[in-house]
Amino acid sequence: MKDLFDYNSETGELKWRRRPISMFKTLHSQNVWNSQNAGKAISKPSVRVSGKSYRTARIVWYLIHGLYPKSHVDFINGDPLDFREDNLVLRSASDLAEKRNLPAHSTSGIKGVYYCRRRNKWRAHIKKHGRKIALGDYEKKEDAVAARLLAEQEIFGTGGGNRTHNSFRKPDFESGASTNSATPAHRILTTE
Q1: Contact 87, 76 (CB under 8 A)
Q2: What is the rounded average pLDDT of the residues 39-56?
Q3: Residue 191: pLDDT band by 50, 70, 90 thresholds?
Q4: 3-state SS string for the chain
Q5: Is pLDDT at 162 greater than 90 in this prediction?
Q6: Contact (Cβ atoms closer than 8 angstroms) between residue 74 and residue 47
Q7: 160 vs 149, higher pLDDT
Q8: What is the pLDDT of residue 130?
Q9: Rounded Cα–Cα distance for residues 12 and 10 (Å)
Q10: Which pLDDT tens digit goes with each residue over 13-33?
């Protein structure tokens, strides 16, 4: 693999190298491939090498670390074409499932936050290792969202990766300003 790609760790740019004649049946097919691809940046989530498809992020991980990752390679900033070394992280399948996009029937537009009609409050939750953790009930949607984002930061180390909510404030758990009727997220998550 290292003979096929050039990787710039500062920019995250991955480029095809010129391929030798041994990879082709004819000199003409080698010349065509090299003129169309050699030296050009790869801007796709997967590439084909010798008829087999490879995830580009896994190739980059291999070029950096010398080993193919056993788990999934994820992108901290959520951009699947940003191959910089500091943007790549290994995640389990369950962690990736937590980061999936919202279902179409979402009432809040935020994963893990929904309106509970029975209690007439906004409710927040998150899953950790397949176990649902209640983050509390809130009068305001913004407080439920802030609790969810705080929990995401503590569990996954990011603000969710695939979305941003810079306009929401975090609830003040210590002063009692939030109407949270459950244990605050930061107390639940730091006790494990």
Answers
A1: yes
A2: 90
A3: very low
A4: CCCCEEEECCCCEEEECCCCHHHCCCHHHHHHHHHHHCCCECCCCEEEECCEEEEHHHHHHHHHHCCCCCCEEEECCCCCCCCCHHHEEEECHHHHHHCCCCCCCCCCCCCCEEEECCCCEEEEEEEECCEEEEEEEECCHHHHHHHHHHHHHHHHCCCCCCCCCCCCCCCCCCCCCCCCCCCCHHHHHHCC
A5: no
A6: no
A7: 149
A8: 79
A9: 6
A10: 999 999 999 988 999 999 999
- Lookup: tokens for 77: 């900033």
Is residue 58 within 8 A of residue 73, CB to CB? The reply is: yes
Cβ pair 155, 173 in contact under 8 A:
no
Contact between 137 and 122 under an 8 Å Cβ cutoff? The reply is yes
In one-letter notation, the amino acid at residue 64 is: I
pLDDT tens string 103-115: 666 777 788 898 9
Residue with tokens 């695939």: 162
Identify whether the C-beta of residue 72 lies closer than 8 Å to the C-beta of residue 91: yes
Tell me how far apart the alpha carbons of residues 103 and 109 are, in angstroms, rounded to a whole number. 9
> To the nearest whole percent, how much of the chain has pLDDT over 70?
77
Tokens of 97: 């499932």
Look at the block and give the residue holding tokens 């084909």: 48
CA distances (Å), 17 to each of 4, 32, 36, 50, in order?
5, 14, 11, 14
pTM exceeding the 0.85 threshold for the entire prediction: no
Tokens of 125: 């939750």
